[in-house]
Amino acid sequence: MSRRKLLVLLPVVPALALLASVWLPFVNAERLWFGMPSLYVWVGGWVLMLTPALAAVEWGLFRHGERVAAGAAAGEAQ
């Protein structure tokens, strides 16, 4: 699998963690983590992890597009 395809799959992990949060017994329970309900902490943590994951995908795809465009422009110039 290419690095680009793996990069696109990166945001899937936080998305699945967010979707599965209501079915995970250690998250969806009546207990406190850091003084807040465990579900709030779990969702907040994964939302904070989702943002860099999406940024990495955007950065990786944008950089790849720049390289392809630069290679095409160099090929036309020759």
UniProtKB/TrEMBL annotation:
It comes from the Bacteria. The chain crosses the membrane at residues 39-57. The keyword Transmembrane helix applies. Keywords: Membrane, Transmembrane, Transmembrane helix. This is Integral membrane protein. It comes from Streptomyces himastatinicus ATCC 53653.
